[in-house]
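Please check the following for our workbook:

***
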Amino acid sequence: MRDAFLNRIATATPPHDVHAKFVEYAPSRLADVRQRSLFARMAARAQIEHRYSVLPAHPGQGLDAEGFYGDRFPSTSARMERYAREALPLARRALDRLRLREEAGRITHLILTSCTGFYAPGLDLEIMQAYGLRESVERTIVGFMGCYAAMNALKLARHIVRSEAEACVLVVNLELCTLHLQEEADLEFMLSFLIFADGCAAALVSAQPEGIALQGFATAVLPESAPHITWHIGDAGFLMHLSGQVPGLLERAMPTLGMPAHNAVHWAVHPGGRTILDAVENGLQLPAEALAPARGVLRDYGNMSSATVMFVWQRLLEAGIPGPGCGMAFGPGLTAEMARFEVV
């Protein structure tokens, strides 16, 4: 049976670099001097230099210049209204770089992933209308699956292409994580929010034999790990819990996940944080350079949830060095989604 190919990827972020501002602001929400000191040490070790948001940073004492996080933090409704306002403009930045207008007539399917906002009629229809896609385009939303959702979207795109020879699948991964800061002054939450950012990736998958051949996928759920990554809808946004035990669980599980990768020369690993990448590197005994693309994305953009691993795939695609590879992304479950691929 034919392979499916990840032909092109384009990415985009909002214009506002907010990482330095958050590092400056977060300690003011921690009452305990020891917690403030620990946050500063962890921020310095995070290996993140830039993170981007749809919210402009405040030039003074506040967090954002618009007062979105002001004296009272916004309700879930207000956050969803902002998501609906910002989603299409950010998507268009990526889709224009993908040159979607030139490909509009070829698109047969549209797959959208997001876990940071919902509305209907939604972003999928807005993209279809903005770029003149045919009304017969089949649309699928992969929602609320977290950081590994892009792998599920690529898996679904592969199934479509392998069953329909003429299919051309547009995959869009868009996340506005910075809309979900919580008001509680909790060190663990502040440390988890230290890594999250906004971003969008857009890709084309077809049977056209160029780019990256998607050769197979596998899924593994780590036993008794469900409480360690959670994502719930609250009255004041979406509530993320990321346990400090996740890296250790992943490192121990790496040799048992079941994705053959002994000959991989490329690694498209979701950079969920420095300690996540360290866990993969140590658990699989990889050379330091193996995860350089993932560490570069973490440094330049932070963790953009489902969009992030596509930024890593993009770097591999643009480097154009032929060879086999292994992709990995992690999220609630605790689930590992994996892929075998080859840069052709």
Remarks:
- The first strand starts at residue 4 and ends at 12.
- Residues 76-97 form the longest helix (22 residues).
